[in-house]
Specification:
It comes from Cicer arietinum. InterPro entries: DIOX_N, IPNS-like_FE2OG_OXY, IPNS-like_sf, Oxoglu/Fe-dep_dioxygenase_dom, Plant_2OG-oxidoreductases. GO terms for molecular function: L-ascorbic acid binding; metal ion binding; oxidoreductase activity. With 368 residues, the protein is α+β, with helices and mostly antiparallel strands. It has a single domain, classed as Sandwich (Jelly Rolls), CATH 2.60.120. The chain contains eleven helices and 14 strands. The chain has an eight-stranded mixed beta sheet with strand order 1-2-10-7-12-5-4-3. A four-stranded antiparallel beta sheet has the order 6-11-8-9. The chain has a two-stranded antiparallel ribbon with strand order 13-14. It is globular, with a radius of gyration of 19 Å. It binds the ligand COc1ccc(-c2cc(=O)c3c(O)c(OC)c(OC)c(O)c3o2)cc1, 2-oxoglutaric acid and fe (ii) ion. Residues 125, 131-132, 141, 147, 211, 213, 229-230, 232, 234-236, 273, 305, 307, 351 line the site of the ligand COc1ccc(-c2cc(=O)c3c(O)c(OC)c(OC)c(O)c3o2)cc1.
């Protein structure tokens, strides 16, 4: 991806066109094409540890934003040990969250002809469809998505913003503005635990960019062989995710096991992205995660990615480097980091490989 600072919307590497999963399921729920099937090893069922889900930290954002030391300590531990946590008392109104989920559901219920008016072109990442499909051999994910760049406003491509259901645009704007506010508060607390001035992380973005990815996971007849979303780490600074209360699906890799994140009503799931991992020299972890499918119920999730401007030079902070913690990442320009990720994908790697290879390459390059 490339984000130009001179008022141009971001551009992206091409993605192959693949079938709409929701339509496929509508036509024949029982049939799951081979392109979506994974073997046991890929599913990593062996390491499935559902009972560990309760251990994911829950953090009170209002306490955090008031500088509560205990909560800041919890945040530090959550970022070091899990890379994931759920936030409560974040100030995003329940009604707004519900409305956002309702209108998104209404959008996905529209006939395919209507949704396809916003179809993601093969050379863009915005719109309705599938991104990051780079090879005909790639095992496909059991999901469709609507992806929009929300901020800054000059990067928006309104042709991809659905006109139906009525009011969707306004609700996306209101929800995203609240999520950005909560995310900015979190970045202030992350600055504090990283021993920086409160506003440093936000300022380092030059501009905090925000993208929204609404994932739609139709029910799947063979959930034990199919993934809703392949394992990946986020290229963001942080990601804030709203998920259905009643349908779990998100799993994160923790100490080699896949741990489900049990939805907590009204909470937002936060994960540390690659950029915080680099800034913190690996102290805080951008953890691999995936979405599994459900035999009977459809699931939706709303991922809001916060990330820096393309021209931001990202490197570990000096004070995070010492004899015990040598510099783990080379300096990267954020736009190049994303572009490199896309390029690797175009070379035929799956999302998992790309995320891993980039991280490893970054480390390897530093060691040479
Ligand atoms: C396997 O399925 C997926 C892999 C990666 C992503 C994904 C992760 C991100 O961190 C991310 C992102 O940060 C981002 O903004 C820079 C973005 O642009 C809209 C993404 O599409 C994005 O996707 C999702 C699914
Ligand atoms: O659906 C989920 O819970 C995960 C979504 C996700 O990881 C993403 O959109 O990047
Ligand atoms: Fe993600």
């Amino acid at each position: 991806m490339s984000v130009n600072i001179d008022d141009e919307a971001p551009t992206f590497a091409p993605s192959l066109l693949v079938p709409n999963v929701q339509e496929m399921v509508k036509k024949n729920y029982l049939h799951v094409p081979k392109r979506y099937m994974r073997n046991q090893e890929e599913m990593e069922k062996v390491n499935y540890m559902p009972h560990l889900s309760c251990e994911i930290p829950i953090i009170d954002l209002s306490l955090l934003s008031n500088g509560n030391m205990e909560e800041l300590l919890k945040l530090d531990i959550a970022c070091k040990e899990w890379g994931f946590f759920q936030i409560v008392n974040h100030g995003v109104e329940r009604e707004l969250m519900q409305r956002m989920m309702e209108v998104a559901d209404e959008f996905f219920k529209l006939p395919i002809e209507e949704k396809d008016k916003y179809a993601m072109p093969s050379n863009d990442i915005q719109g309705y469809g599938h991104a990051y499909v780079v090879s005909e051999e790639q095992t496909l994910d059991w999901s469709d998505a609507l992806i929009l760049i929300i901020n800054p406003v000059r990067y928006r491509k309104l042709q991809f913003w659905p006109k139906f259901p009525e009011g969707f645009k306004e609700i996306i704007e209101a929800y995203s503005s609240e999520v950005k506010r909560a995310g900015t508060e979190l970045l202030s607390s992350l600055s504090v635990i990283m021993e920086l001035e409160k506003h440093t992380l936000v300022e380092l973005h030059k501009e905090v960019l925000q993208a929204l990815r609404v994932n739609y996971y139709p029910p799947c007849n063979t959930p034990e062989q199919v993934l809703g979303l392949s394992p990946h780490s986020d290229t963001s600074t942080i990601t804030l995710l709203m998920q259905n209360d009643d349908v779990p699906g998100l799993e994160l890799r923790h100490k080699g096991n896949w741990i489900p994140v049990t939805p907590i009503p009204d909470a937002l799931v936060v994960n540390i992205g690659d950029i915080i991992e680099i800034w913190s020299n690996g102290k805080y972890k951008s953890v691999e995660h995936r979405a599994v499918t459900n035999k009977n119920k459809r699931r939706t999730s709303h991922a809001s990615f916060l990330f820096p401007r393309d021209d931001v030079e990202v490197e570990p902070f000096d004070h995070m480097i010492d004899a015990q913690n040598p510099k783990m990442y080379k300096n990267v320009r954020y736009g190049d980091y994303l572009r490199q990720s896309m390029k690797r994908k175009m070379e035929g790697k799956t999302h998992t490989d790309v995320a891993r290879i980039i991280k490893e390459r970054v480390i390897e390059a530093q060691q040479i």
